[in-house]
């Protein structure tokens, strides 16, 4: 217990903002809120700016981002709301870009802080009125957390968020498929503190349903369910994959058994020496194919689902042609996507044994008609069934993938630049070496 408490104190000390940074943060928030109010008054528009997110709740666990929602009455048209919000956001932020959730908003920087200025509707979720757009819930989430999270628990949320980041389960984005900041806050509200959340996770099973109090919602078919206390029709944990849920449960067990700062602040991943990579690869006796694709100019939430879908398609195609895929991985940098597929062998015999129907099945004659004189051997009977030895369509996996996936690979994913079998490792780029290292020598972040 003493060791854990010492660890918690060290983590919170590292997370604390310097007084001058916190002062600059709060003054930046006030400046933006005042600027939105002034624009609303000048244009005669009814808009209420509200601070939301971790800064509003006092639960940030790292560099704080400023999230300000500009709330419009529900009778305002979506077009008017979006246009006003974008114009004002661009006017307030000296550095900005348009981003898109369910509708566009402005993302930018001010005084060294990342800022999101988001137009939304001011609502109350009732049986009569639901949400108008998905972002409308966010101010309600902020109100709920501020009303139910006491000051001492704010540090507990910071610990949980930092732990989640350290073990790589934090973030409801499509790449991480993990725990959102709001879910971390709800878990602390439900269980009381950081350590209690870790202990409670040992009781979670696939499909476990969690809630604040006796709240009930509709049925969900997802690995973990947490009923949103402000909207019972929503699962706050919907982004979490089975793998991420399993990783958090395992990390919690490991930490409680042996607490250490490395769970909160692990070493960054490092590439293994080329000699070690070659040794591991040769010991597996498998083949790895690398697919290099130019990275399209699109947001991550659009790109990553397509990359994952593409990898699933590659695996299914290889499996259909008997290449027995064993695993996949991918990485991206500013210019390129690199996808990795490991299989038992990238080369197969020219001959394939093809199974037909039992001899006594009436339509077995159709099988004979199809293959007689068109196969390498047969038809012949084995175990009461017809078989033929035929020429395999694709004995080489690289050639097969080039033919099957030679064109555009998705709505926003262009054709591959290169599809090749992994060769001399000393020639691969650093980012590919890191991808191979993480794939061939799998370690949890706290084990690095």
Order of helices and strands: HHEHEHEEEHHHHEEEHHEHEEEHEEHEH
Number of strands: 15
Overall number of structural domains: 4
Name the average pLDDT: 92
Task: Please tally the helical runs, counting DSSP H or I stretches of 4 or more residues.
Answer: 14
Oligomer: single chain
Question: Can you tell me about this structure?
Answer:
By secondary structure, this protein is α+β, with helices and mostly antiparallel strands. The protein folds into four domains: 16-140, 2-Layer Sandwich (Beta Polymerase, domain 2), CATH 3.30.460; 149-263, CCA tRNA nucleotidyltransferase, domain 2 (Poly(a)-polymerase, middle domain, Orthogonal Bundle), CATH 1.10.1410; 274-347 and 395-447, Poly(A) polymerase predicted RNA binding domain (Alpha-Beta Plaits, 2-Layer Sandwich), CATH 3.30.70.590; 351-391, Alpha-Beta Plaits (2-Layer Sandwich). It has helices at 2-15, 19-43, 53-57, 78-92, 137-148, 151-166, 181-191, 194-201, 242-257, 274-284, 300-320, 364-371, 397-404, 430-440, and strands at residues 47-52, 66-72, 95-100, 104-110, 113-121, 208-210, 224-228, 231-235, 287-294, 325-332, 336-343, 351-358, 377-382, 385-391, 418-421. The strands form four sheets. Strands 1-2-5-4-3 form a five-stranded mixed β-sheet, with helices on both faces. It is elongated.
Task: Furnish the topology, listing elements before pairings.
Layout: H1 2-15, H2 19-43, E1 47-52, H3 53-57, E2 66-72, H4 78-92, E3 95-100, E4 104-110, E5 113-121, H5 137-148, H6 151-166, H7 181-191, H8 194-201, E6 208-210, E7 224-228, E8 231-235, H9 242-257, H10 274-284, E9 287-294, H11 300-320, E10 325-332, E11 336-343, E12 351-358, H12 364-371, E13 377-382, E14 385-391, H13 397-404, E15 418-421, H14 430-440
Parallel strand pairs: 2-5, 6-7
Antiparallel strand pairs: 1-2, 3-4, 4-5, 7-8, 9-11, 9-15, 10-11, 12-14, 13-14
Helix pairs in contact: 1-6, 6-7, 7-8, 8-9, 10-14
């Amino acid at each position: 217990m003493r060791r854990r408490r010492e660890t918690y104190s060290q983590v919170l000390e590292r997370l604390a903002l310097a007084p001058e940074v916190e002062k600059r943060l709060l003054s930046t928030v006030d400046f933006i809120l005042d600027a939105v109010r002034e624009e609303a008054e000048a244009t005669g528009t009814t808009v209420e700016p509200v601070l939301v997110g971790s800064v509003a709740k006092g639960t940030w666990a790292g560099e704080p981002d400023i999230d300000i929602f500009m709330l419009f009455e529900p009778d305002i048209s979506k077009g008017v709301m979006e246009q006003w919000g974008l114009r004002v956001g661009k006017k307030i932020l000296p550095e900005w870009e348009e981003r898109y959730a369910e509708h566009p908003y402005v993302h930018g920087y001010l005084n060294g802080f990342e800022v999101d200025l988001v137009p939304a509707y001011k609502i109350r979720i009732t049986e009569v009125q639901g949400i108008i757009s998905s972002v409308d819930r966010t101010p309600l989430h902020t109100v709920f957390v501020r009303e139910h999270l006491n000051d001492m628990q704010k540090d507990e949320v910071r610990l949980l968020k930092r732990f989640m980041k350290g073990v790589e389960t934090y973030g409801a984005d499509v790449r991480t498929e993990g725990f959102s900041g709001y879910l971390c806050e709800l878990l602390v509200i439900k269980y009381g503190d950081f350590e209690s959340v870790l202990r409670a996770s040992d009781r979670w099973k696939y499909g476990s349903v969690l809630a604040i109090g006796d709240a009930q919602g509709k049925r969900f078919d997802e690995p973990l369910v947490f009923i949103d206390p402000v909207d019972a029709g929503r699962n706050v944990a919907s982004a979490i994959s089975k793998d991420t849920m399993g990783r958090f449960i395992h990390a919690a067990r490991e930490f409680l058994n042996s607490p250490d700062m490395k769970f909160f602040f692990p070493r960054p991943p490092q590439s293994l020496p080329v000699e070690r990579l070659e040794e591991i690869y040769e010991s597996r006796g498998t083949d790895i194919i690398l697919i290099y694709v130019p990275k399209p100019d699109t947001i991550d939430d659009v790109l990553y689902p397509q990359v994952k879908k593409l990898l699933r398609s590659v695996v299914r195609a290889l499996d259909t042609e008997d290449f027995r895929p064993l695993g996949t991985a991918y990485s991206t940098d500013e210019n390129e996507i690199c996808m990795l597929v490991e299989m038992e062998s990238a080369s197969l015999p020219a001959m394939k044994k093809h199974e037909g129907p039992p001899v006594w099945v009436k339509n077995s004659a159709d099988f004979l008609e199809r293959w007689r004189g068109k196969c390498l051997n047969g038809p012949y009977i084995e175990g009461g069934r017809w078989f033929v030895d035929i020429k395999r369509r694709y004995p080489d996996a690289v050639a097969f993938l080039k033919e099957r996936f030679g064109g555009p690979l998705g709505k926003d994913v262009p054709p591959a630049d290169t599809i090749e079998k992994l060769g001399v490792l000393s020639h691969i780029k650093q980012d590919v070496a890191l991808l191979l290292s993480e794939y061939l020598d799998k370690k949890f972040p706290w084990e690095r």
